[in-house]
Each structure stands twice: as C-alpha cells, then as structure tokens.
Design brief:
- With 213 residues, this protein is an alpha/beta fold.
- It is built from 4 helices and 11 strands, in the order E-H-H-E-E-E-H-E-E-E-E-H-E-E-E.
- The strands form 3 sheets. Strands 5-11-10-9-8 form a 5-stranded mixed sheet, with helices on one face. The protein has a 4-stranded mixed sheet with strand order 1-2-3-4. It has a two-stranded antiparallel ribbon with strand order 6-7.
- It is globular, with a radius of gyration of 21 Å.
C-alpha cells in the first residue's frame, strides 16, 4: 500500500512524515486490497480556530469503495490520532457488515418521491438574476463560489455516478462517514439519496424524473 502525505498551507517535516507512515501501516491489516492511502494536512491560520488549527483528511483507495476519515485538533499529531481512529473503526464496521449483512438485513424505509415542478404550468415573473455559481468540471476537486454580494459560500464537488443497489449505497455511506449518500439506483435508474434515520434505520429519497439513456 502506497502512503502519500501532502500539506496545504503548511510544510511537512521528515519526522512527521515518518510518524504518519509508521502509524498507518496497520491500516493494511483491515484493508488488504488497499492500494493508496492519501494523507492531506491543512493548517488553519485563523487564531480563533487554534483548538482545531490542524486538520487531517485520510482517503483510502483500492479495489472497492473509497474510505475517508478526517479530524481536527490543536496539533497535527493529535489530529492524526483522531482521524486514524475513525478510519480504523469504519474499516472494522465494513468488515463486520460483509460478514453479517446476509443474516441481518438492514431496515430501510422508503420515503415518498420528491415532487418536481410542472413544466407545463404558466411561468411566474422572473426574479432578479444572481451571480452564477461555478460548477465543478474535475472529479474530486472542490469549487467554491459566492452567491452575489451575500456572505454565502457554495462548495461543490463532482463525482462519478455509478449505478448501484440501495445496500451498496448504505455500505459506501458508512465508509465515507457521511449522514447521507447520493447515487443512481441500479434497478430504476433514478437519482436517490440514502440517509440515517433514528437508531439503525435508514431512509431513501428518490427523484421522480425520467432518465434518457
């Protein structure tokens, strides 16, 4: 497994790089098919955020879903420990899920499809135009845009859309540690979102739209 360490707005010392590689070698025990583990360290210069000025994001890639974990702390060693613990926990849960998901089906509650606007309805008066939000064009690269003169910042990322089952979407959602996951349903070809509900239940929201092949 290749371990790549990069810094954003900060320098990476040889001592810290060696510490990262030594600590993360254990990841391969739970992810034997892993090919690359990217470690990105970001330094926040704002003194008001001193307690979380060092943020580390771990991204594990290989034959299978991407696994991510991130954490912030006042020093980079502490942030690494927190992110590493999250990553290992997600890998353990993924391993256990592979063993048990046939015996214990995951309860999923289907929600009603979202209603899309009637395209044949009379048009309403147009609102004043705002500055366009720049859409990302490169996979995995975040693009930030400001909405007009407001302080609102919109952060976007472009991801490849691979059709999958609900079960697979739940699996990938757990691996990246997000409360929701956007995907294309393998059976219906509809854009869908799975998300956490209370306890061990999940929800699914579908867009009722026609997909042209």
């Amino acid at each position: 497994m290749e371990i790549v360490v990069v810094g954003r707005n900060t320098e990476i010392s040889d001592r810290f790089r060696d510490h990262v590689e030594e600590k993360l070698e254990k990841v391969e025990q739970l992810a034997p098919l892993a090919q690359r583990l990217a470690v990105e360290l970001n330094h926040e210069k704002n003194p008001r955020l001193a307690d979380r000025s060092e943020r580390i994001e771990l991204t594990l890639r290989g034959k299978g879903p991407v696994v991510r974990a991130e954490a912030s702390a006042s020093d980079r060693y502490g942030a690494l420990d927190l992110a590493y613990a999250k990553l290992m926990e997600r890998l353990r849960r993924a391993r256990d899920r592979r063993k048990d998901h046939h015996r214990y089906p995951v309860p999923v509650l289907e929600d009603a499809p979202l209603e899309l606007p009637d395209l044949n309805a009379p048009e309403e008066p147009a609102e004043p135009e705002q500055d366009a939000v720049t859409a990302p064009t490169e996979h995995g690269v975040a693009v930030e845009s400001q909405l007009g003169d407001s302080p609102v910042i919109v952060r976007q990322k472009l991801h490849e859309a691979t059709a999958m089952t609900i079960d697979q979407a739940l699996y990938e959602m757990e691996l990246v540690g997000h409360p929701f996951y956007l995907f294309i349903d393998e059976e219906t070809k509809q854009p869908c979102v799975v998300y956490h509900r209370h306890g061990w239940t999940y929800g699914v929201i579908r867009l009722d739209t026609t997909v042209v092949d």
